[in-house]
Design brief:
Elements lengths: L4 H14 L3 E3 L7 E8 L1 H13 L3 H8 L1 H8 E4 L6 E8 L3 E8 L1 E4 L24 E3 L5 E3 L2 E7 L2 E6 L4 E4 L9 H6 L5 H11 L11 H9 L2 H15 L3 H33 L4 E7 L2 E6 L8 E3 L5 E2 L3 E4 L3 E5 L1 H4 L4 E4 L18 E2 L4 E6 L7 E6 L5 H10 L7 H30 L4 H15 L4 H18 L2 E3 L4 H5 L4 E4 L6 E14 L2 E2 L13 H8 L4 E3 L2 E3 L2 H10 L2 E4 L15 E4 L11 E10 L4 E8 L5 E7 L1 H7 L9 H9 L4 E10 L4 H6 L2 H4 L4 E12 L3 H10 L3 E5 L4 H11 L7 E8 L8 E5 L20 E2 L4 E2 L6 E6 H10 L4 H7 E5 L3 H13 L4 E5 L5 H6 L2 E4 L4 H5 L2 E3 L6 H38 L7 H19 L21 H24 L20 H20 L14 H19 L3 H7 L9 H35 L9 H11 ...
Parallel strand pairs: 23-35, 23-42, 35-41, 36-40, 40-41, 42-43, 43-44
Antiparallel strand pairs: 1-2, 2-3, 2-4, 4-5, 6-9, 7-8, 9-10, 10-11, 12-13, 12-14, 14-21, 15-20, 16-19, 16-21, 17-18, 17-20, 22-44, 24-25, 24-34, 26-27, 28-29, 29-30, 30-31, 31-32, 32-33, 33-34, 36-37, 37-46, 38-39, 45-46
Helix pairs in contact: 3-4, 7-9, 8-9, 8-13, 12-13, 12-29, 14-29, 14-30, 16-17, 25-36, 29-30, 29-31, 29-32, 30-32, 30-33, 31-32, 31-35, 32-33, 32-35
Length: 1212
């Protein structure tokens, strides 16, 4: 919720009165805590003394925790005295990002105290406005020197009045339209002075050097631990495995560095752009400068040939046609007109049709005079719309990689076990009088055994195989970290245009209407006879000519082209029989038409409004004195505006026929305006014109879905994935596509949620409209014999039906999210279509779905999808342009067939990682148990025994474990296990540890029972040869094979184990080798492994018998107890919805029992009076008092019915 200045200042003072914490962006969505620190010379000196005394280890610890270095070397102080600040960004009350920033001083006397090193000359004639700092709260201040910090690429300057750092903004806050018109250009000096505050106009993404990337990677805690491990092993002359670990570490470091640098280079190449632009230096003085020199307040000239915008600017003179696909994802030319010169405040949302945004392309300029097209620069650099998009890529919301984070946490459990083993080793060996140095080496060796240094490399192998398989399917991945989390996906958000559909629509035909009757459908629109329907199709649009090509909304283009009529702008027409000067264009039939002399002038246009669901245009035909208005829009809207006698009675059945087949249906009406001239027309409201229409007919279009869209959506829905469409297109088209491709099923009703508010201080009116395009109006809906309301579009009873999906526009989403955030979970859970969503709103939707516990994938192809692609757990781009930089996955095949492939491969990788993790943990614990058992008699496994286990029975299996292909069968609903600390995972690990320990102890005990047995006597620190060693080692080597086999899970996530030929061969091969070692090894094998082989052949078969029983126990517990009983049977039964992190389950449960959100109990005619006591909505109880809020927090509701259509408004 946004706070006004007084409220924000009061809250800030209250907070400051309690502690030294302050806030930046207080009350906004990106609110962050900020703390001031000043340097302490004494503390800093002590810190460096400790660093030197610990040989740099303490500095290494401070590298991992830089905030500790700040706490030690600095002391807390008020912000105005700080030379460093700590900024804490908290997300969802769970994740915290810390930013430590130096406080810089910016001064107009020069850059030597700030970020630059150039001296700036100052004279007395400098325009003071050039020294103004515009703040986020709409105020401005004139400065000569100021303290500043940079957080997330944005500048914050110190405000003495508010005692806080305030965000520096451009001219988009606190400026009136008249003030923007007053700018006439800066001199070079003024421009340079203003650049002190705003810096260079560039969106700069740093590319780190290879050296710095290597250093940062090497200082990773895991690699530091590997250095420690190698040192311990070298002390024990354990060379071979050291070399293996070093090789794997070098491979891991180099691959990580290469991937990171390549990602940085790709992002830099994509977002960096510069050029030259002409700026105004005052009255009729112009200069061409680099775009990097622009500052807010500069007046630029838009080139006549068009350009790519390098800043955000507002038009002062002239008009432009712009392609805003970078922002909206829709390649539809948009007309931008000059800003009115008036005293009202500039508002970006209200004045978006006057604003040129950075990254968009100006296609054409128009200026009816001979002057230049001027625009004043509003924002530069990261303040621009494109800069905000790039910031969302650089600073995405923290993702909850549960599996990855928990595997690291599990290391601490292993460390605790290692500590216990270390204590046991020191105590027991000290009691037996061993040398301290031997005790130390053996104790440290325990740590390297329990915590496997090869774990990171082993965990990476499964991801690498998944990446390789995806690459063969023409799907690339730039961030392997998302592989595992992508295996948990249960919600997928799709962009529409270019993702689900081809660009644009196809004309199917028309259904003309005359005198209240429908004529036969006509597929070839060019054969349509002259009349209102043909004239309306040729004129009722917002098209324009760009470089000789008809451009505009694809729907309008298709409709116009289908008529074969010719569109000419006024200044392009050679001859005109119409002298109606206000016309901006004419349309006329083709030259071979019998009426080729006919011309229709386009006089005045009312743009399409998603709220009104219509557009209209006023025309004048040649030879006629009357104006004619043509209006097209949703059928229910045009019908409500038409004369009843002109509407065919069978409209409901006709609509149902086409909409059930997924066609997009638009209606058209016309009205002759009597006794209205141009001057009177300018004073009339569109509502006065768009009424009493004659219903002309229906225009039928079909959305061209990509060939695989329907089949893939069906596959995903069978897997019980939540499917959502989030698009920048209008809601009617989006719902039509959602129905056709199967996102919205044929048995689901569609309810549009519309939020309206007069101003941000008023209570919003939230309406649920059961009339998504197209549907019959109120008077065409009649109760059936049971008294239930029938939806003619869907053929459903709407009484207490749980089968509904919600559709909402970006405008309504913003209002609800700002003023009624408690409704957001319901919108997210039941929402299917989110239309007219901006890039920021798409990202917000992704984050809100994630907060409800969904694992979200986003699939899109436009630059406006970048924020959502980056914020999602899994981003899949169908384009190799801007979106591929933000997206971990990029498909070279531009359809959604890649989505189930990614999910299947990532599920296989997740199961592989989980299996490898359990195998590596149990491999270490099994080796640890063997060591502890033998330490009890001061023996141990020999070096070559360790080497055989580590190389042949651990590394061998870990490397080939992930080669199992992803399951090729149907995508199943159940996602793989993701939590290492779940009861299922812990039971699996614990049960196997107990089984392995029990059988090792049993083997150790049984060998003592044989007559030929002689106990071990300690001779030297490296002499371990004994019967106990043989008993433990010979059995334990099979245990690693058993663990690898039982953890190699097959269907429904991976193919069976025998499909992994290398791994299966390794299992069989090692089983044979271990059997050979156990039963009858050669003398050189005995010498190599230092085996004390039994004198008689009675014990080795006993070992194999124990191995067989061990295998059966392990297989039973893993496959029956863990996988079948706990995972398949008890998992859902044990799930407590109210305590679950999957909050959407509780929301869905509540919605199923709440039969009044958003539906109504009985059909209400617009003339009926509503009894509030009998109606309840949005899950809240009705109350006779509509104007009070009860203590329980429920809101009492008042209802109103719109006169135009059947809808219910809830005012809060």
């Amino acid at each position: 919720m946004l706070l006004d200045n007084d409220t924000g200042d009061k809250k800030r003072k209250d907070i400051l009165g309690q502690n030294e914490c302050n806030f930046i962006n207080l009350g906004e969505e990106d609110e962050m805590e900020i703390y001031g620190y000043e340097k302490s010379a004494l503390s800093t000196a002590i810190m460096w003394v400790v660093v030197i005394m610990t040989l740099g280890l303490f500095r290494l610890l401070l590298h991992w925790r830089p905030e500790w270095m700040l706490y030690i070397s600095h002391r807390r102080c008020p912000l105005e005295k700080a030379d460093k600040v700590l900024v804490v960004d908290t997300y969802e009350k769970r994740f915290k990002s810390l930013f430590i920033r130096d406080v810089k001083t910016l001064s107009i006397s020069g850059f030597n105290e700030g970020k630059r090193g150039n001296q700036v000359p100052v004279n007395q004639e400098v325009d003071k406005r050039c020294l103004e700092a515009h703040l986020n709260n709409g105020s401005s201040k004139v400065i000569t020197s100021v303290q500043a910090i940079w957080v997330k690429k944005l500048c914050y300057i110190w405000d003495d009045e508010r005692k806080s750092f305030m965000k520096l903004v451009g001219l988009d806050r606190g400026q009136t339209r008249a003030q923007l018109h007053s700018y006439n250009g800066f001199s070079k000096e003024n421009q340079l002075l203003r650049s002190i505050l705003y810096g260079r106009n560039e969106i700069f993404v740093q590319i780190q050097s290879i050296k710095s990337l290597i250093v940062l990677e090497v200082l990773n805690p895991f690699y530091i631990f590997q250095v420690f491990t190698i040192c311990v092993w070298l002390a024990e002359y354990y060379y071979y495995y050291c070399f293996a670990i070093i090789f794997m570490s070098l491979f891991g470091i180099s691959s990580a560095v290469i991937q990171t640098r390549q990602n940085q280079k790709n992002l830099h190449k994509t977002v960096h752009s510069s050029g030259t632009i002409t700026v105004c230096r005052g009255s009729n003085e112009y200069e061409e400068i680099p775009t990097t020199d622009l500052v807010p307040g500069d007046v630029i000239v838009i080139p006549s040939q068009g350009c790519v915008m390098h800043c955000d600017a507002v038009l002062l003179v002239g008009s432009c046609i712009v392609n805003e696909s970078m922002l909206t994802g829709e390649s539809v030319p948009v007309m931008k007109t000059a800003l009115q010169n008036e005293q009202s405040l500039y508002n970006e949302k209200e004045d978006s049709n006057h604003t040129l945004f950075c990254g968009t392309r100006v296609l054409q300029i128009k200026n009816h005079g001979k002057g230049k097209v001027h625009a004043v620069v509003l924002r530069t650099g990261f303040l621009t719309a494109k800069g905000n998009l790039v910031r969302s890529i650089l600073y995405p919301p923290p993702a909850d990689y549960k599996f990855d984070s928990q595997t690291y946490k599990f290391i601490w459990i292993l460390a605790a076990i290692a500590l216990l083993g270390l204590i046991y080793t020191v105590v027991t060996k000290s009691s037996r009088g061993l040398q301290p140095i031997d005790i130390l080496i053996k104790a440290l060796d325990i740590i390297t055994i329990v915590v496997p240094p090869s774990l990171p490399a082993a965990m990476t192998v499964g991801k690498l195989y998944a990446l390789s398989r995806l690459k063969k399917q023409k799907i690339s991945c730039i961030n392997s970290r998302v592989i595992n989390v992508s295996g948990s996906i249960n919600c997928i958000c799709f962009d529409k245009t270019g993702t689900l559909t081809e660009d644009g629509l196809d004309m199917w035909g028309v259904v003309p209407a005359q005198r209240g009757q429908f004529a036969a459908p006509l597929n070839d629109t060019s054969q349509l006879p002259n009349g209102p329907l043909l004239y309306g199709m040729a004129s009722c649009h917002s098209l324009t000519m760009i470089n000789g090509v008809l451009s505009g909304d694809p729907l309008d283009v298709k409709m116009m082209e289908s008529t074969k009529w010719i569109y000419q702008e006024i200044d392009e027409a050679d001859t005109m029989s119409i002298t109606y000067t206000p016309a901006h264009a004419i349309v006329k039939p083709p030259g071979d038409s019998p009426n080729n002399n006919m011309e229709i002038a386009l006089i005045h246009q009312f743009q399409f409004s998603s709220t009104l669901q219509r557009m209209s245009i006023v025309t004048k035909a040649g030879g006629s004195d009357d104006l004619v208005v043509y209006c097209k829009g949703s059928p229910e809207m045009i019908q409500s505006l038409s004369l009843p006698d002109s509407v065919p009675e069978n409209l409901p059945s006709i609509l149902q026929t086409y909409t059930e087949q997924g066609y997009r249906v638009i209606a058209l009406g016309e009205r002759k305006l009597k006794d209205i001239d141009h001057s009177k027309l300018q004073t009339m409201h569109r509502n006065d014109l768009e009424k009493d229409l004659n219903f002309c007919g229906l225009i039928i279009l079909e959305n061209r879905l990509k060939p695989k869209t329907i089949s893939i959506i069906d596959v995903l829905k069978k897997a019980q994935m939540k499917i959502v469409m989030v698009t920048g297109d209008n809601i009617l088209t989006a719902v039509s596509v959602a129905k056709e491709c199967g996102i919205i099923s044929s048995n689901e009703a569609v309810i549009e949620v519309v939020a309206e508010v007069e101003d941000m201080k008023a209570k919003p009116t939230i309406s649920f409209i059961n009339s998504m395009s197209p549907i019959v109006p109120v008077r065409a809906s009649v109760p059936n014999i049971s008294g239930k309301h029938i939806d003619y579009e869907l053929g459903l009873s709407m009484v207490n039906s749980p089968n509904y999906r919600l559709a909402v526009t970006g405008k309504s989403w913003e209002i609800i999210r700002e003023m009624r955030p408690d409704l957001i979970p319901k919108l997210c859970v039941r929402g299917a279509v989110f239309a007219r969503m901006s890039s920021d709103q798409k990202q917000q939707l992704i984050q809100d779905l994630q907060q409800l516990g969904y694992f979200v994938a986003m699939c899109g192809d436009g630059a406006n999808d970048c924020g959502a692609l980056k914020a999602a757990h899994t981003g899949i781009s169908l384009s190799e342009a801007e979106s591929s930089v933000a997206s971990p996955f990029t498909s070279q095949i531009a359809d959604i067939s890649c989505v189930p492939r990614v999910i299947q491969e990532c599920r296989a990788a997740l199961v592989t990682s989980f299996g490898v993790f359990k195998f590596m943990v149990l491999y270490s614990l099994t080796e640890f148990l063997s060591t502890i058992i033998l330490y009890s008699i001061d023996s141990n496994l020999t070096q070559n025994q360790f080497l055989f286990i580590d190389i042949c029975l651990s590394l061998n299996f870990a490397i080939s474990f992930g080669r199992n292909p992803a399951y090729s069968g149907q995508l199943v609903a159940a996602v793989p296990l993701t939590s290492v600390f779940s009861a299922i995972a812990l039971t699996s690990i614990t049960s196997q540890v107990v089984i392995m320990f029990a059988f090792q102890c049993l083997s150790f005990y049984v060998v003592h029972l044989y007559s030929w047995f002689t106990p071990f006597h300690y001779i030297a620190p490296t002499y371990y040869k004994c019967y106990e060693n043989y008993a433990v080692y010979s059995l334990s080597q099979f245990q690693y094979i058993i663990l690898a086999f039982i953890f190699s899970q097959g269907a429904p996530y991976r193919e069976p184990i025998y499909r992994n030929k290398i791994f299966f061969s390794a299992i069989l091969g090692m089983t044979i080798v271990c059997s050979y070692i156990t039963l009858h090894p050669a003398e050189w094998v005995k010498d190599l492994l230092e085996l004390e082989f039994p004198k008689q052949f009675d014990f080795p078969p006993m070992v194999l018998l124990l191995v067989g029983i061990n295998f059966l126990f392990s297989l039973f517990f893993e496959n029956v107890v863990v996988q079948y009983i706990m995972f398949k049977k008890l998992r859902r039964w044990r799930h407590n919805i109210d305590k679950s992190s999957k909050k959407y389950l509780a929301v869905e449960r509540d919605l199923k029992t709440d039969r009044h959100f958003p539906l109504f109990k009985s059909f209400i005619n617009k003339n009926d009076k509503i009894n509030v006591s009998n109606v309840s909505e949005i899950g809240l109880p009705s109350n006779s008092d509509h104007h009070t809020m009860p203590e329980s927090g429920h809101v009492n509701l008042a209802f109103s019915v719109d006169e135009d259509q059947s809808r219910f408004s809830t005012k809060f």
